[in-house]
Amino acid sequence: MSPKGESGLKKKGCCATNKCLIFLCFVVSLGITALIVVALLVMNVRGRFPPEQKWWQKTIVYQIYPRSFQDSDGDGIGDLNGIISRLDYFNYLGVDAIWISPVYESPMIDFGYDISNFTKVDPMFGSMENMKTLIKEAHARNLRVILDFVPNHSSNKHPWFIKSELREDPYTDYYIWHDTAPNNWHSVFGGSAWGWSDVRKQYYYHAFLPEQPDLNYRNPAVREEMKNVVDFWARTGIDGLRVDAIINLFESTNVSLNEPPTNLPDVTSEQWEYYDHLYTANLPEINDAIQEWSDVLRKYDNSDDDTDNSKFMVVEIYAVPSIRNAYYTNGADMPFNMDLVEGSYPSCNASCIKKLVEIEYNTLPEGKWPNFVMGNHDRSRLTSKRGITTSGKTYTNVLNMLLLTLRGTPTCYYGDELGMEDVDTISFEDTQDPYGLHFGTSAYKNFSRDPERTPMQWDESPQAGFTNSSHPWLPLNQNHTFINVQYEKNASHITPLKVYRALAKLRQEPAFLYGSFDFRYTDDNVISYVRSASGYSSYLVVINVGTETGTIDFKTPYDYQEGTVKVTTGNFDHEDYALDSTIKLDKIILQPAEGLVILLP
Ligand code: GLC
Ligand code: MG
């Protein structure tokens, strides 16, 4: 053996003893610690120490109505493989989370919101394998997948209901049964909420269609079943749940109580809105159920690496802040704030919109995160709601500009990034939506949700790139020849898609992600605000959502001299306000439906 063996080699180093090594380690770690401290201090001083934000606070949530997004098998109905084939679109768009409306096994009476198996994909949409591929492919693109969770009711074709009708235990009390229709409780879709079962010879409660019997949440076995459903999907790898119809989860056990009328104008006694739902909506017991689902989800939060894998839960609710904000405390991450769903109609002018935004920020419980929704599969499209200006412009770009620059998570409905419009020419005979059909030939248009559910407009080809079938399940909007992804992507001029994309990109800046929000000049036409995060660029957003031209001076009293246009709605030939041009802020003139995001110096 060479005398230089192991110990010989060691002796070659400059630090031969253990003591010396320990000392060396100590000095090196001290140095590293000092460097980290200095770096942190510098970051902090410059305000570059972003608050810890969860993924769902940083993304746009993009809602896909699966029947209408992309068909892959030529049956005229969208499906999971269709969605998979379009996943790159979200990277292009700058969206990091998709919410997919129900794709579970269903007789499709309410197009998937009537579920006959909560843990199975309907063959119309594909298979469980397809769902797993979708999740995997989405994650490979840094895209989160949020599924719809419909806990309030099942389909009347669900085995639980069929067995309940037969009084087969343990299913006998899985639903809410009575010998008579005991009261005036109403269905959201119109008419009595009590349906007759000819099998069981009893009435059952249904907050929605007769084909959607309400589950009995006072039965612990039902609670277990639905916890298992949440567990199943969390295990499958989804990132979050949008909880359907949360307010309807519980009803009073005292069925002798009739609900009083609201006396709202223009509401018929057939409508749900006719009654004040003291005994069938927003009961406090709902909190416990949400907490149970949340506890299940929390088991799947993965906090042992630095990627944020927390599971997200948002609950569907249309309500005033005092009611909806209560849902922040029961384990849900947030309740949808639907104020701008109504606030995007012309009846809500700029001052009214300002008020709605203020309400959200001012009533938000301590430490909670705001959010805004403008449209979904149950309401008119934002472009159709606000109409057009006298010069024929739509408000698509200003509304998207508003939604995407507010502080809080925006939820967008598919196609609204293109300015897709309602198809309001669907005849009663061609109407699919049971809500519309319930009100008959004369009134169906006031209720049908078909107009906002028409196929996604991908290109100008005869079926808009949505399907190979010549019979999509709902008619395409004829305007798909010029309102479509391909055209709006490649046009040489500014299009809604380009504006949306620019805004989605800008949203990733600290000023928009978590920066402060301060209103500036507002009147009945114009709304403006500044977003800023210390140490980073600040932006002035100024938009005209009104019907008259606005002239605004930001010099007096705000002392803004000039700024650079970073996003423009681009719907006017306005050389002065071209992208990247520096403009004086003492006199901004904005036409109706025109808006700018301006970088402040
Ligand atoms: C929710 C859904 C709606 C559905 C209803 C019943 O309100 O958004 O589309 O019809 O619940 O599930
Ligand atoms: Mg299909």
Report on the structure:
With 601 residues, the protein is of the alpha/beta class. Helix content is 29%, strand content 15%. It has 19 helices and 21 strands. It has helices at residues 6-12, 18-45, 55-58, 80-85, 87-93, 128-140, 159-165, 220-236, 286-298, 321-324, 339-343, 350-363, 382-386, 396-405, 434-438, 440-447, 485-490, 496-506, 510-513; strands spanning 61-64, 97-100, 104-105, 117-121, 144-149, 177-178, 194-197, 202-205, 240-243, 312-315, 334-335, 371-373, 409-413, 516-519, 526-532, 538-544, 550-552, 562-568, 582-584, 588-590, 595-600. The strands form 5 sheets. Strands 11-10-9-5-2-1-13-12 form an 8-stranded parallel β-sheet. A 6-stranded antiparallel β-sheet has the order 14-15-16-21-18-19. Helix 8 runs parallel beside helix 9 and helix 14 (396-405) runs parallel beside helix 18 (496-506). The relative contact order is 0.09. Residues 71, 73, 75, 77, 79 line the site of magnesium ion.
Keywords:
alpha/beta, binds magnesium ion, 21 strands, eight-stranded parallel beta sheet, six-stranded antiparallel beta sheet, globular, 29% helix, binds alpha-D-glucopyranose, disordered N terminus, 601 residues
